[in-house]
């Protein structure tokens, strides 16, 4: 393995949950091995290969297993099953004050953390000036860390972690307590480490930071790995899930052959709706194919409409129809197919749903309408923001 490499195979971490403290004792001493606990999988069957120099953002809701994964990587906790292999020095900011002795001064804790990473006192002496300068907490560097504010903790912890030349740097929400100037300082230093080949694992609820900093992202949900890929795409998918929840698509897919219905009130019915794919990038070609049956031999003014909505249906994105576009569609008795094509999809990241309808009388009479009969997502590498991409240019004044 190269220094900075992380390999995770079939990794699971199980905790036993008890209704009351006495149940733990009863289970321990039960002659019949009776269980008084429930198993909770903090992580379940995780497989990952992280190469040297990658910057990995980890997203997921609170309790999803992100911090558990980081603790396993650092060796703070051990796996229930599976293996995890790392190579090289690991510097981790998991929790504020973790690894610090509250009775020691800032200086003493710098040496303590260096020793824990395998550095000698002489090696740490060379690094102490840079650490003190970066932390920038003034005379508090000589005071017990129990007197520090959360911001001071973050400054000192980060300063130690990034100035000991780690092969793997782990940052878990540590930047959220710092002020803006400190966050800029930290990100700039992390970019230096990134360019020097340090592997970085980065957890933050500020997901735009992952888009802009990380090369790759993973999404953990209920202890399971849901997505692993290009950072911006994974973040878009996660963000869509947080906004809208699971997709609720009611597909229309009638494979029966054409036949006249017994109920003569039906003049036309949508039989099938399909989309060329469900995951797009901006500017790609999108096609919605609509199959419909016409039962009346004297149908006139038939029109087909396709509409896009945001997944929560709060935003009506676009809804053309063949009547407005002055397109004639087949309206004789029988089965027909119409394809709606968007040559260049100008939507940005998001989840969208598709409605399809057939009408006549200038769109006044609804013959059949299908809500949420298809859905699609748009996710890109990070190149712009918003809901739509608009062609634009910049002019820079002298």
Automatic annotation (TrEMBL):
GO terms for molecular function: ABC-type transporter activity; ATP binding; ATP hydrolysis activity. Pfam families: ABC_tran (PF00005), Wzt_C (PF14524). Keywords: ATP-binding, Nucleotide-binding, Transport. The keyword Nucleotide-binding applies. Coiled coil: none annotated. One of its GO terms (cellular component) is membrane. Residues 6-247 form the ABC transporter domain. CDD domains: ABC_KpsT_Wzt, Wzt_C-like. Belongs to the ABC transporter superfamily. This is Teichoic acid ABC transporter ATP-binding protein. It comes from Butyribacter intestini.
């Amino acid at each position: 393995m190269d220094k900075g490499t992380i390999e995770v195979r079939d990794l699971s971490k199980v905790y036993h949950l008890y209704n009351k403290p006495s149940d733990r004792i009863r289970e321990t001493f039960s002659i019949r091995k009776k269980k008084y606990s429930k198993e909770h999988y903090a992580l379940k069957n995780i497989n990952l290969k992280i190469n040297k120099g990658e910057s990995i953002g980890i997203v997921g809701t609170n309790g999803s297993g992100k911090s558990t994964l980081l603790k396993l990587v650092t060796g703070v906790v051990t796996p229930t099953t599976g293996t995890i292999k790392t190579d090289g020095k690991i510097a981790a900011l998991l929790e504020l004050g973790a690894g610090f002795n509250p009775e020691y001064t800032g200086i003493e804790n710098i040496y303590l953390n260096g020793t824990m990473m395998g550095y000698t006192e002489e090696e740490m002496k060379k690094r102490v000036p840079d650490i003190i300068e970066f932390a920038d907490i003034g005379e508090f560097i000589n005071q017990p860390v129990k007197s520090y504010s959360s911001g001071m903790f973050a400054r000192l912890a980060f300063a130690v972690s990034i100035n000991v030349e780690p092969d793997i740097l782990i940052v878990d929400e540590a930047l959220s307590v710092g002020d803006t100037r400190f966050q800029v300082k930290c990100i700039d230093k992390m970019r230096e480490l990134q360019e020097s080949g340090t592997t970085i694992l980065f957890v933050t609820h500020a997901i735009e930071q992952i888009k802009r900093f990380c090369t790759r992202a993973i999404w953990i949900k209920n202890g399971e790995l849901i997505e692993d890929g290009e950072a911006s795409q994974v973040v878009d998918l996660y963000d869509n899930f947080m906004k809208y929840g699971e997709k609720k698509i009611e597909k229309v897919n009638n494979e029966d052959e054409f036949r006249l219905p017994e109920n003569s009130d039906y003049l036309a019915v949508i039989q099938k709706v399909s989309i060329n794919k469900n995951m797009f990038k901006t500017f790609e070609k999108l096609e919605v194919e609509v199959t419909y049956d016409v039962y009346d031999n004297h149908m006139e003014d038939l029109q087909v409409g396709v509409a896009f909505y945001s997944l929560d249906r709060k935003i009506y994105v676009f809804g053309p129809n063949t009547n407005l576009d002055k397109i004639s569609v087949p309206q004789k008795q029988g089965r027909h197919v119409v394809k709606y094509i968007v040559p260049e999809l100008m939507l940005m990241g998001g989840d969208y749903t598709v409605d399809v309808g057939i009408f006549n009388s200038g769109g006044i009479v609804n013959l059949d309408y299908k809500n949420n009969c298809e859905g699609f997502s748009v996710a890109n590498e990070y190149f712009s923001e918003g809901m739509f991409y608009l062609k634009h240019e910049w002019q820079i004044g002298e």
